[in-house]
Design brief:
Strands 1, 2, 3, 4, 5, 6, 7, 8, 9 and 10 form a ten-stranded parallel sheet that branches. By secondary structure, this protein is of the alpha/beta class. The protein has twelve helices and ten strands. The protein has a single domain, classed as Luciferase-like domain (TIM Barrel), CATH 3.20.20. The radius of gyration is 18 Å and the shape is globular. α3 packs across α4 and α4 packs parallel to α5.
Length: 280
Amino acid sequence: MTAVNFGKIGVWTSYRPFGVELAGEAAKLVEQLGYGTWWIGASPRVPDVRPVLEATSSLVAATGILNVWANEPAETAAATAAVRADFPGRFMLGIGVGHREATTEYRTPLATMRAFLDGLDASETPPPPEERCLAALGPKMLELASERAAGTHTYFVPVEHTRAARKRLGPDKLVAPELACVVDANPVRAKAVARDYAKHYLGLRNYVRNLLRHGFTDDDVADGGSDRLIDALVPQGSAAEIAEIVHAHLHAGADHVCLQPLGEDGIPRDAWTALAKALI
């Protein structure tokens, strides 16, 4: 499946909430708590994983995800080879095509991804397929992830999508969904945080289409999302309650779930700690 040992549970965050200068401190905490992987968000470039890897001894770092519109295949391949040489077995290149709403030159996602992968494979130092994964929602992109990569890293997906992705990819490919969550005993406050987060993604067509394919209706995705949809995508409550959704993803076929706790300023120490106690 993959040459990288992700562990069952990881974290997903960009450096934005606390600044890159605290990335090493945050990475040490993630590793100490027992998480296996840090998925670095906000369309990172390959060198952006270095602060995490340099501060830790075994934590895996992954791009979640590197945007093909903002990166060149040959440059990406060279940077990947350098990171793999310095930190063998500790880096996963996650690649995606982003969103039509965010990219003026956006064109056919599948053709664009194939061309980027072709460029990687034609480079002087091609990243091995087992050390790269694709952000894949639809059936065709999932099939490409199965053909040309270790598997898929998914985002803003319900358990039903994880089940469908596992079925399409087969038993030996990576399925690693992200799960946003709110560790908060105050249900009104937690729901408000979850809704504020989901608002952006419910304005992106690829996510909405994916939700409509996997058990949700037009009413569910309208007007900021139904409670049923918000609770499925951004569980709220105690760490134990959130762990139930994590286990549902694992039971549906996920190899690894990476958690993105919301609503805590700076490094999410409290949420990471509580979730680790419940899951690791």
